[in-house]
Amino acid sequence: MRGCGVSDAAGRLSELLNCLPDGWPYFAYDANGNTVKEQTPSYTRYYAGAGLPAPLGTGRDMLVGVRSTEPGWTENVIRYSGEASRVSLSDSTGATYYTWDGIRVLRTEDQEGSMRQRQVHGQGPAGIPSVGDIALIEPAGASPCVPAADQVGTVWALLDGSG
User: Fold this and answer.
1) DSSP code at position 140
2) Residue whose C-alpha is closest to residue 76's, from 59, 93, 60, 61
3) Distance CA 113, CA 39 (A)
4) Distance (Å, whole) CA 15 – CA 75
5) Which helix H or strand E contains 115, and what residues bound it?
6) What is residue 145's DSSP assignment?
7) Longest Cα pair distance anywhere in the chain, in angstroms?
8) Could you tell me whether strands 13-17 and 62-68 are parallel, antiparallel, or unpaired per DSSP bridges?
9) Does this model's pTM top 0.70?
10) Please, what is the Cα angle at 79 between 73 and 85, to 5 degrees?
11) Over the stretch 10-37, which tens digit does the pLDDT of each residue have?
12) What is the chain's alpha carbon radius of gyration, rounded to the nearest angstrom?
């Protein structure tokens, strides 16, 4: 077993040494609390952030890239709009593009413009749109499904026509 956390002089978490047996991931963080490294016995992943606008004033950088020593892994590159909405995610299999209505993803497409997934949103608490109000998910070539959530909104299953 290893210790749980290492903090810098200002009390900010700089490393998380999992409180589980050896072999579980080790995480390292920068001064803003961004994950910069994940290490396991079989691979190491590096997370790159950029000085893009942080969402909702979190003070954190936006993830712009992930690379790994895993066999077959290719670098992931993430791009954002000026409003800090994810525009695309690219890796060796191609790119995924995101269409937003402002705060919610409505559709994802591949580099040819073919739909990968469509999301239909309902209303959040008090009729206010929120990111957690997905009413229907329609993956390309698959049956539509609806998220099943508990009383506090935590999604615990995606249900299709078969239940």
Assistant:
1) T
2) 93
3) 36
4) 23
5) strand 115-121
6) B
7) 54
8) unpaired
9) no
10) 125
11) 655 555 555 555 667 777 877 777 788 8
12) 19
